[in-house]
Amino acid sequence: MTEAREAILLVGGKGTRLRPLTVHTPKPMVPAAGVPFLTHQLARARAAGVEHVVLATSYLAEVFEPYFGDGSSLGLSLEYVTEREPLGTGGAIRNVASRLASGPDEPVLVFNGDILTGLDIRALAASHATSGADVSLHLTRVEDPRAFGLVPTDGSGRVTAFLEKPQTPQEIVTDQINAGAYIFRRSVIDTIPAGRPVSVERETFPGLLADGAHLQGMVDSTYWLDLGTPQAFVRGSADLVLGRAPSPAVPGRCGDRLVLPSASVAADAKLTAGTVVGERARIGEGARISGSTVLQDAVVEPGAVITDSLVGAGARIGSRTVLTGAVIGDGAQVGADNELRDGIRVWCGAVLPDASVRFSSDQ
Questions:
Q1: Domain named Nucleotidyl transferase: which ranges (predicted)?
Q2: Annotated active-site positions, please?
């Protein structure tokens, strides 16, 4: 079988780097291009022939099933397994193994819940079948690999080493990194120790390599973005709207803006660069919003200027306030005539009075 019919989706992380977006919402459920980010991943898996997905949940696990149910609305069969204690990536994979129906030699797709990618999943599965690998990894190339795990390969694509987060020039032997999507031979999953934390990147893969297993890398350098920071999340959402990142789940045509049906936008407001306006949000006269996400029930008052920012659910941005690279938590109130720049984060429910802030986080 070349096609992976089953998948494990790792969605247990706390999304600490994404706070305050993830205070009330697990990272995969934060809206990107108008729907929870997880919707895009599930839709892409379905389009690649996956039929059954097991979600490995932990943080705020109770919100997934009420939203997605049994998966039938997406043409999938979904199951949910909740970790009582965080088990790491490898431990999470092992923890859900009993829910898989695949035979020992059949392929199982495993992917991380915080990566936006244009990966050709069918091509990864075909490469896995052709090479006869025990595990196949999606690799992508990055300009600065120091924040990632390097995965050098030989001329045939076979993985030769795993190098965690190199720092010196001598350690940077390749620009190929682990991109967070894998195809496992089903039987390999059962070799991961059960009931304890395991890192697939630091323990499972190097251990398999040391034992002589065949790990194959497929470089696919189409769109790839780690959505671990608020700035990356905002950019990923905009790229989905603009059509730079492919997804069958974007609720509308790709273009400069995506306004959900129950939102209201003043006729002279200007929305550009992949801006999203969520359900029941209101955008006032003369507002200019570029490359930003305004979540459900938020209000942007007249004349506000918002660039590369995220406005949380139910938040309010006052008249003429300027946001650049800012994250405003759910329910926060930012008064009129404020200026917030450069990665500043306003916590959920915080209140900033009119004209009280004109600074950036690096001052």
A1: 7-239
A2: 165
